[in-house]
Amino acid sequence: MIQINETKNTIKIVGVKDNSKNTFIKNKVGVPTLISEDKTIYIVFKKDEETFTEQIKKGIEATISNFDFDVDIDIDSFENVCDGISKEEIIKTVYETISFSTHKGLSIEKVEKETKYNLIFTGKHQELINQLTIVCEYINYARDLQDTPPNIGTSEYYADKLVSDAKDIKGLKVTILGRKEATKLNMGLFLGVNAGSAHEPRIVVMEYCGDSSKPKTGLVGKGICFDSGGYNLKPSNYMEGMKFDMSGAAVVLSATMALAKAKAKANIVAVGMFTDNKIGQNATLPDSVIESMSGKKVLIFDTDAEGRLVLADGISYVVKEKQVDQIIDASTLTGTVLFALGHNATGAFSHSDKMINELNEASQKSGERFWRLPIFKEHLKQVKKDAAPLADLTNACRVRYEDCSYAAAFLNEFAENKPFLHLDIAGTADKENKGQGVLVKTLFEMLK
Question: 2-123: CATH homologous superfamily?
């Protein structure tokens, strides 16, 4: 439990520059020292080590792991020793770290006692605290959606849960589209992915307008509840963690709920494209040609490249039905972005320098890393070449090395010349088999 300037506890956490005055303090970043006589936990900060933000996060995480009693956290002491970082940034880092690290989520472990973390600081920062409370709530909400086991987390389950959980958020309209609506809209790609599933397809549409003068942004999230690869079946080791293939939908919808709850001056249409990708008697076969909602014909070279198919129809939906001004998609889309960036950054693809600049500005505030990767004209040329003469585009090229860029080029074709930003979170969505709620902070900062 996080408290703000409440009645003081017996033990406090303070930040110090070094341990020269008290050699019992461990002179190592990220290693908290409890001196019971002082009733104080000391955290050492060093200017020549990692950034102060990273040091604060590491020190708070270690304190949470090692001590389970109620504590005060002296924010002003952190500010005194962490040169060049604002008090607001310190409060934000401490608050987010505690919220993330103490969230039990779907764990079956019983919490016997909830530890209280009381942030003590001077000055008025209530607006910041209000925002942090909402954003952290929906980061953890996204993580719970991600962590749901795939036998429970079906397309129908997520649609019902999101409708129920969003119903009390003022100004947020939620609509669910099923097979009937998708068929009427000619969403051939989305329905083609769903063809082998025992579960009905669901499209969760969230609309929030806090300021009609703002550009209307379409957020489209990949919601593959489990990805077997379809007839291009994944090897067993590659199926591990495939319940996280719906992470894109989880984060764009969670970010929209946060924006609405915060009454942000934003104009959003968020779409979660929920289905799974399985093998069945009606499942789509490799070499099939399917017509998309946009009217473009797509050659299905690889049924395991299904994410870009559901996103394509989702992008067409927000463009044609909701008349958005710009589009951002989020998806655990390709293994190649993982090879390029590992787990350290999300891949960002766009022809719009303006959208990339806005993303980078938001990233500076959120602390989440992004790295721009290319969409060259050669990428689109290959996507078209490998589809000819049967179709306009292929969902996967025979040249595999740049698949993340081929995927981005494919998706950009459905944006109808609107500014488009593709975020590939294959390497950042989950870590050590746990959802990370990545992008919620950044999308909030970018659109609020």
Answer: Leucine Aminopeptidase, subunit E, domain 1 (3.40.220.10)
